[in-house]
Amino acid sequence: MNTASGGVQGPVGGSTYRVVALVPNLMDRGRVEAALLAAGATVEFVASASQLAEAGGGAQLAVVDLTVPLVMVAVASLSAAGTPTFGFGSHVDRELLRRARASGCNDVVPRSAVAHRLALIVAAGVAGVAGRAASDTAPGGRSPGR
Fold first, then answer.
1. Selection from 57, 47, 32, 40 nearest residue 131 by Cα
2. Residue 104 lies in a domain
3. Which of 77, 88, 94, 109 could pair with 113 in a Cys bridge, judged by C-beta atoms 3.0 to 4.6 Å apart?
4. What confidence score (pLDDT) does residue 57 get?
5. pLDDT-based confidence at 135, cuts 50/70/90?
6. Are strands 61-65 and 17-22 parallel, antiparallel or unpaired?
7. Model confidence over 28-80: pLDDT tens digits?
């Protein structure tokens, strides 16, 4: 496992937005890592679908290259555990993208849209984590609407 930590701590040094990623292609990995770190996430790269399923349980997001063997099993497992998944693959392989959605992948995009879409999703998630950390430290421990 390889961890990149450019993640932003919550306002009180608490929460981070943790992403686990299965992206074996080095070109794709570089784009994914840059987008995640720029958006303020901490990312842990894993080498196999089984490692993804194991490490992804406590993550706010799992990012997967849909061409990796057995990845659909890991996506289904993460989906059942409530971990959102972001998958990408070739724009011409419509069947692969369809199977990913059917396996429970929350967001499926062609490879060309990965960096842009991932940055948007993670930026919103990081803001949510930081907001929850701030409200959890308010008097009484919770914000009024929770």
1. 40
2. yes
3. 109
4. 79
5. very low
6. parallel
7. 999 999 999 998 899 999 999 999 999 987 899 999 999 999 999 999 999 99
Structural domain includes residue 13: yes
64, 83 in Cβ contact below 8 A? no
CA-to-CA distance for 8 and 38, rounded, in angstroms? 10
Distance CA 82, CA 95 (A): 24
Is 110 a member of any domain?
Answer: yes
Confidence of residue 122 (pLDDT cuts 50, 70, 90): confident
Which amino acid, 110? P
Name the residue with tokens 């429970």.
Answer: 104
The phi, psi pair for 109, rounded to 5°, reads: -135, 160
Number of domains in the chain: 1
Q: For residue 125, which of 102, 133, 77 has the smallest C-alpha distance? A: 133
